[in-house]
Amino acid sequence: MSICRLYAGVMLAACVWRAGGSEVAAPPPEAAESATNAPRLLSGPERLKQDILITIDTNAPAAVAADTNAQKSFRLQGGWRGWDGLHLELNERTRLSNPSGPMTRLLVSSNALPPICLDQIQMTIKFGARIEVDAAGFLTSGSLPDFADDVELRRALFSAQGDCILVFPVSYMLELGYRSDTFYLNKAYLLSQDMNYIGNLQVGVFQPPMGLQVITSSRDITFMEPAAPLQAMAPPNETGIQIGHPVFNQRATWTLGIFGDAATDTEYGNASRNYGSAIGRLTWLALDHLDADHPSANRLLHLGVSANYQYSVTSDIRYRSRPESDIAPYVIDTGDIDASGAATVGGEVAWVNGPLSLQGEFIHVFVQGTNATTLNFGGFYAEASWYLTGESRPYDRTTGAFSRLIPLRDFDFGRGGAWGALELACRFSHTDLDDQQVRGGRLNLFMAGLNWYLNPHVRWMFNCGVGHVSSGQWDGHMFIAQTRIGVDF
């Protein structure tokens, strides 16, 4: 069923459906306008109520077994919210009429755990998707082979996320990806928030806390791909457990996690296998002046450090990177290195001054080879961007990373000629995977970009760059021109 037919059916049902003797009406106009013009993100498990189009409510709780002294009610509600996807909510509540009954005596109180809820089951689900299509053309010289010009489905992601109360209040995320004729698991985790002493507890498959540009969603970074040094040496989505929390009035964050291998093949990131990792990150807003009503007055200075220690008795380490284009092949590659461990350190800095944004990172790896030698690989990047239409890059204090841009005015050529948001950007990156007997190569890249945000859910990107590869398998120059159209809901 198409989106239009689904939406029409939901609206018709909302107008005529009665359940349990109660009539359900369509949402007020202001709610519909809000769903169209701004992203509406799911709230935490403590605030599960959502606007609805359809409600099924028993309205008359049926008594359960007499010895439990309880009554139950069931409610299912949901609706299509335009660009914010399909939302559903389920609520089953057991009303306990005797507070000293057997169920209440099972309640446990602990300062280190979230409250245990035995009287209700509640869940929200948001179904969403993201589709991105890339096209690229290349010119190469020297010993570099010809790169094939191509058009590809960069990624198709299908997600179900939300909050639930099922004994404990938790948030959850399941995201499946499709590319190269293969489905893969991109994310799958449970998150319990605001636990005493440890903050947020996250378990599953997700992005480890290292690298500002890879922690920021690929939907929200300035260029089509992360900088080459992070593609080579930062960790990809991995299986792990992580704790952390914003502190000092959300001016700082700390995160610490233990991770294993990635669950499936990853889009980019450290290509090592059969390792365990301990990863930590600290961030600080040294300058903090954010004004949502006047983006041109925004001022912030973000500082961050991170560290990653990988360990295994018998495994291989490998680092490699494409030239910041997914259609291009890998141009620097260490191959498999026989090593017992590796330590990675990184630093981050980002400055936002109204429409101007500057950002840079360095990353360095010390690889402990099994022959008692230490190898050094590293790199850095620096980038700048400017919003021609007056927006300012949004910052998420809870994660210490950047978030989705909301244009001041969505594209609407028929009403006043609003053009959405326009962003100019440039970036230089240097990656060195060459040391001692390992000839992984060096890559220098300069990339320029133009981004057109038609609305918060549609972006058209143009990247154009030049690069030089040396000291490895190849030595030569390259020219890259590429574009991407991305849509999410």
Please give a handful of descriptors for the protein shown.
489 residues, mainly beta, Porin, 2 domains, 15-stranded antiparallel beta barrel, two-stranded antiparallel ribbon, 4 helices, 25 strands, 55% strand, disordered N terminus
Characterise the protein shown here.
- The protein is mainly beta.
- It folds into two domains: 1-93, no CATH class; 107-488, Porin.
- Helix content is 7%, strand content 55%.
- The protein contains four helices and 25 strands.
- It has helices at 3-16, 29-37, 212-215, 228-233; strands spanning 18-19, 22-23, 54-57, 62-63, 70-80, 86-96, 117-140, 150-179, 182-195, 199-206, 238-247, 252-259, 276-289, 299-317, 320-321, 332-333, 337-353, 356-369, 374-387, 395-396, 401-402, 421-435, 438-455, 458-470, 476-488.
- The strands form four sheets. A 15-stranded antiparallel barrel has the order 7-8-9-10-11-12-13-14-17-18-19-22-23-24-25. Strands 1-2 form a two-stranded antiparallel sheet. The protein has a two-stranded antiparallel sheet with strand order 15-16.
- The longest helix has 14 residues, at 3-16.
- The model is unreliable at 1-43, 46-70 and 98-113 (pLDDT under 50).
**CA-based shape:** globular
Assembly type: single chain
Output the radius of gyration.
25 Å
Beginning-to-end CA distance, first to last residue: 16 Å
CATH fold assignment of the largest domain: Porin
The CATH superfamily of the largest domain appears as: Porin
Mean pLDDT: 81
Element order: H for helix, E for strand: HEEHEEEEEEEEHHEEEEEEEEEEEEEEE
CATH architecture of the largest domain: Beta Barrel
Count of helical regions: 4
Poorly predicted sequence stretches spanning 5 or more consecutive residues: 1-43, 46-70, 98-113
Number of strands: 25
**CATH class call of the largest domain:** Mainly Beta
Q: Structural class from helices and strands?
A: mainly beta
What percent of the residues sit in helical stretches (DSSP H or I)? Answer: under 10%
Strand order of the largest sheet: 7-8-9-10-11-12-13-14-17-18-19-22-23-24-25
- Most strands sheet: 15 strands, antiparallel, barrel
Number of discrete domains: 2
